[in-house]
Design a protein that fits this description.
3-stranded antiparallel beta sheet, two-stranded antiparallel sheet, 5 strands, 45% helix
Length: 248
């Protein structure tokens, strides 16, 4: 039974009690019983109405989110039990997708794949190595391999690539540490947005352009929007570089 179903069940009980009906038997409570006291009845009606509002708000206590404003990602423990483990190793993006399928994304932010991999980097289960193009690739550490994190050769739209994948044990580890991952997910992605540019950031951009790093990766590294990175490249006169055209 979901949290919303439990709330609805409780509301049904309160509605009946407020009307002087025993919710277990469906019979009217004798007139002299405390439940028929008018002040008690009013309290029960009031609490039942509060529950109604919470149910209509999707189980969220308080005012509903404004249009276009999504609540931070969260996943109740009851919903976590419905996570579908893969019969084969899954990538971090596939794990994130399965966790996102357990919530209503029309009212809630997505759990980002980067939140999972960032937690695993912090936990010493992944590390980053620089490829020939200067792009940083994540790979499992020795501790990560022991946990069930491995690599597979896969084929995508741009050819063959090495994917980091997670077996059932590694997926369970991610589930067990989901609260820490959710905390990372709530941290603003572009936490340096609006801050003055530092000389070391400009130096990074110049090096990134020389090695062919894409704007989306510069954005992730500097924790600034892609639009801000493009504007800074323009200001530094680095306009000749071929840059990606993804959304800011």
């Amino acid at each position: 039974m979901t949290d919303l179903e439990i709330m609805q069940h409780a509301k049904d009980y309160l509605d009946k009690l407020a009307k002087g009906i025993d919710p277990l038997t469906g019979r009217e409570v004798p007139e002299g019983e405390i439940i028929n006291n008018v002040r008690i009845s009013r309290c029960l009606f009031y609490v039942a109405d509060v529950l109604r509002q919470v149910i209509e708000n999707g189980g969220v206590i308080g005012a509903p989110a404004k249009r276009g404003e999504l609540a931070p990602y969260t996943l109740p423990f009851e919903a976590r039990s419905r996570y579908a483990f893969g019969d084969w190793p899954l990538s971090a993006s596939q794990i994130a997708q399965r966790l996102n399928e357990l919530v209503d994304l029309s009212t809630m932010q997505k759990l980002k794949t980067t939140s999972i991999t960032k937690f695993l980097l912090q936990s010493g289960l992944l590390f980053e190595e620089e490829g020939p193009s200067g792009k940083k690739n994540k790979r499992p550490t020795e501790a990560g391999w022991k946990l069930g994190i491995s690599t597979q050769q896969r084929t995508g739209l741009n050819g063959d690539y090495t994917a980091v994948v997670y077996d059932r044990q590694a997926q369970q580890f991610i589930l067990d540490n989901l609260d820490a991952i959710i905390a990372i997910n709530a941290t603003p992605l572009h936490e340096n947005q609006g801050k003055p540019w530092e000389p070391e950031e400009d130096a990074y951009l110049q090096q990134a352009v020389r090695t062919g790093v894409e704007v989306k990766d510069m954005s992730a590294e500097l924790k600034r929007t892609r639009a801000a990175v493009r504007a800074r490249l323009e200001k530094l006169g680095l306009t000749e570089v071929e840059r990606d055209h993804g959304n800011p």
